[in-house]
Design a protein that fits this description.
mainly alpha, about 280 residues
Length: about 280
């Protein structure tokens, strides 16, 4: 019965009948306050956000955004959006880097980093770096499937807050610097589950490029050094097994690279007086 009423309220929200949805959802929460498994409060959050009733959204978050209660991308990112909303419209990254963050901006950055730690896949969809597809029937907490569902229904709420997307773009990557080993240790949440990617592949369609976290990018210096070592090793092995061939190849290479310098020297000799040329070439 509760599931049917919750589904009906969700349908009303998607049909644009927000007042009816809010009324039914509030009654369900009042009657079944611990039924978080059905995400009734998340449906109410989405309806209130659609009405831009930010004060009521904050009151609801105060009740459910507790460390002892189950978290979701909706809870964490909505809390971040409300913290970002008062500071993002007049935010300029150049001024922040020069003068530092204000107390409210710092609080907003902390809330954003908390949301990104919970689900690191959401920002790339909100920033339109990846295309959003239809959400799957089942979602995996902290996974790409949850990020798709959140972005599909909530990206409009971010776009309706001027400057919020720009604020997200400026600061979300800093979270990854705070958690160098997310599979071993988290800051505000448990370590990221290692098998999330495989489970998301089962939930999402085959044509979708599943977001992977954490994805480490090696520094250019390490890549360059490794390539140089492999090249040197290859030359050493070829010289050991084919000394005559490699000697001839080295002679041809030296002649090829020395040709431009010989041409330049001939032109200089023709242009400069003989006495000056003798002084330059004297050893």
């Amino acid at each position: 019965m509760v599931s049917a009423q919750s589904t009906g309220a969700m349908c009303l929200r998607k049909m644009g009948k927000l007042k009816e949805c809010i009324k039914i959802t509030r009654e369900l929460i009042k009657e079944f306050p611990i039924m978080s498994v059905l995400h009734i409060h998340e449906n109410l959050l989405e309806a209130l956000l659609a009405q831009k009733a930010y004060n009521e959204v904050q009151q609801l978050l105060t009740r459910y955004d507790d460390l002892n209660l189950p978290k979701s991308a909706v809870i964490c990112y909505t809390a971040a959006l409300l913290k970002i909303r008062p500071v993002c419209e007049k935010f300029f990254s150049e001024v922040a880097h020069r003068k530092g963050l204000t107390a409210l901006q710092y609080t907003a950055v902390e809330a954003l980093q908390r949301a990104v730690e919970f689900n690191p896949h959401v920002p790339q969809y909100l920033l339109e770096e990846k295309a959003v597809i239809l959400p799957p029937e089942h979602l995996l907490k902290r996974g790409d499937s949850e990020a798709i569902a959140y972005s599909f229904y909530h990206s409009t709420h971010w776009k309706e807050v001027p400057g919020s997307v720009k604020f997200l773009q400026c600061f979300y990557r800093d979270t990854f610097k705070l958690i160098p080993f997310p599979l071993e240790k988290g800051v505000m949440f448990h370590p990221y589950t290692a098998g999330t990617e495989d489970m998301d592949r089962e939930l999402l369609p085959s044509f979708h490029d599943v977001s992977v976290y954490p994805r480490k990018e090696l520094p250019f210096f390490l890549v360059f050094t490794a390539g140089l070592c492999m090249f040197t090793l290859s030359l050493a092995l070829l010289t050991h097994f084919y000394p005559v061939f490699m000697g001839e190849l080295a002679r041809i290479a030296l002649e090829y690279f020395a040709t431009p310098f010989s041409v330049i020297a001939e032109h200089l000799q023709a242009l400069l007086p003989q006495q000056i040329w003798n002084l330059l070439t004297r050893t």
